[in-house]
Design goal:
Length: 198
């Protein structure tokens, strides 16, 4: 925690620190926009669903993998990519159920699985970095999950203004998630040169 206090007390951030903050925020924003793209195709443009899903999984297996690999190595990056992919797959199932108007036990179990994967992500990330709290990651991921489900329900009921407002909350949340990720990375490393293409 002392390093984080030092970061807060610094008058200026280094270029490397700024790159970490920008790239971390960009990652989570990419995820938010890719999730929204999948949601819109599942509920409004099914012919594009496969393309949107490929883009979303590309963020997970490409962008997130490459970024975490730079700081934590390929094995760790792959483990995270696998868990995040499972989270996205559960989210896709929830979108399908909302689009079909399903209210059965399968819908409940897929929503529960979504939160289970959020728990797994929080546990995994907190185990990687002493500056990342499991409780904080759970809070972030639970909020993200709740907001995405609310966004899907708003879109399914054609509450387009409400859906847009919820998405703006998702954008703000993911910026905070990226900032939190960046601060943990900066606190736990010597802040190496920024990864290329992140």
């Amino acid at each position: 925690m002392r390093y984080i206090k030092q970061l807060q007390d610094q008058e200026y951030l280094t270029q490397e620190q700024m790159n970490i903050i920008i790239n971390s925020q960009k990652l989570w924003l990419q995820l938010a926009f890719a999730i929204r793209s999948l949601l819109l195709t599942v509920l409004r443009d099914p012919e594009r669903t496969a393309s949107a899903a490929n883009q979303l999984y590309g963020v997970v297996t490409g962008s997130f993998y490459n970024y975490l690999r730079f700081f934590y190595g390929p094995a760790t990056a792959q483990q995270f990519s696998n868990i995040l992919s499972d989270y996205i797959t559960s989210m896709w199932r929830v979108f399908d159920e909302i689009g079909s108007g399903s209210q059965d036990q399968t819908a409940d179990s897929n929503t529960a699985a979504l939160y289970d994967y959020a728990d797994q992500i929080a546990v995994f990330l907190s185990g990687l970095n002493v500056y990342w709290s499991e409780e904080q990651w759970k809070s972030f991921l639970y909020q993200l999950t709740q907001l995405v489900i609310q966004e899907a329900l708003a879109l399914a009921t054609k509450d387009f203004d409400g859906e847009y407002q919820i998405f703006q909350r998702i954008v703000n949340l993911t910026i905070l998630m990226g900032d939190y990720m960046a601060r943990g990375i900066m606190a736990s490393t010597a802040v190496p040169a920024s990864p290329q293409g992140a």
